Amino acid sequence: AILSFKLRSGALQKAPALHSLAMLRYALLLQLIVPSRALRSETAGDAAPLSDLSSSIAVGPSPDSVLASFPKDFFFGLATAAAHVEEAAHGDSWVRFAKQGQVAAYKNQVNPDVRLKFWSEPEVEIDLAAATGVTVFRLGVEWGRLVPKHPKEGGMGVQDQEALKRYKEICQMVRARGMKVMLTLFHHALPSWSVDEDGWLQDETEEYWQTFARDVALELKDEVDYWVTFNEPHVFVLLTYCAQLWPPGKQSHSGACPSYVNTIRKMEHAHREFYLWAHESSNTFTNLQVGVAHNVAYNE
Q1: Cα(266)–Cα(244) distance, rounded to whole angstroms?
Q2: Could you write out the three-class secondary structure of 240-269?
Q3: Pair 201, 250: CB distance under 8 Å
Q4: d(CA 62, CA 29)
Q5: Strand ranges (DSSP E) for the chain?
Q6: What are phi and psi of 255, to 5 degrees?
Q7: 3-state secondary structure of 132
Q8: Cis, bond preceding 248 (omega within 30 deg of 0)
Q9: For 1-17, what is each residue's pLDDT tens digit?
Q10: Separation of alpha carbons 17 and 232, rounded Å
């Protein structure tokens, strides 16, 4: 089982407290352990005063005992996505989409183009992650950075070998700090040339992604412990092809529901084909684990 916290901004660079497990431990207390009586009164379900909440936390289980209650094979991880943290991405489809006025959060920022410098200075975030005591660091590879040109123009599979070597170096940095690597092959970011063709609405997209993903896997096989083919595919499909809020922000002519069904089936098939290929290549990969990251919410 995995509990991951995504790093989406530069806030961690300003939070020295995250240099220890303390923040993770108290986050667990707040999310998982605080008794419900601390959050609600026993009468009409009204919210209790903050003083009551703090007193309940004070007498609750210690952080160490909370962590000790988890199974021995449970690990904690931190996660990033290339589109969130990498700067200077070639032909960034998200930035282009935002500059067209289709991302409200982009327009509301003072310096919307500024991201973390995970591409040029990944050790900053990796060191922060290692200092929390987590054992798994999840990162992604940017499809558009590795395949900047349309495959019909630049060739199938990875085109920028230097960028792929850089990802290998970053994975090695993670492992050198005692953490395992979980690598995401698609985290909600299409190359610009794929956005221009409406992405997963097109049948050819799966072949393009499949060739790219296999090239990455063969190059990084010795550096990666866990493979994630797709991050939250149903969220991506809903917000991209139904709500039309993410690039390319289009539906098929048949409408939202058929768009959802058709694209999620293509991504499911792409995952299955990569999974089968990787396991059939078991002599190439060691202790292979391939999965999908799903969006799961817990409400008491």
Answers
A1: 18
A2: HHHCCCCCCCCCECCEHHHHHHHHHHHHHH
A3: yes
A4: 8
A5: 2-6, 75-79, 136-140, 180-184, 226-231, 290-293
A6: 110, -175
A7: helix
A8: yes
A9: 334 444 433 333 333 33
A10: 30
| Euclidean distance between CA atoms 260 and 252, whole angstroms | 9
Angle at 132 between CA 131 and CA 136, to 5 degrees: 100
Handedness of CA 78, 80, 85, 86 (dihedral sign): positive
DSSP 30: I
3-state SS assignment for residue 141: coil
Q: How far apart are the two ends of the chain, measured CA to CA in Å? A: 20
Q: Is the CB of residue 132 less than 8 Å from the CB of residue 20?
A: yes
What single-letter amino acid sits at 192? S
What are the pLDDT digits (tens) for 21-74? 444 444 444 444 333 333 333 334 444 443 444 444 444 667 677 778 888 888
Give the C-alpha separation, 230 to 249, whole Å: 19
Cα dihedral sign, 190-201-228-74: positive
**C-alpha distances in Å from residue 128, one per residue of 11, 29, 88, 125:** 11, 21, 22, 5
Cβ pair 86, 142 in contact under 8 A: yes
Place of tokens 């991209």: 240
Tokens (6 digits) for 215: 């090239």
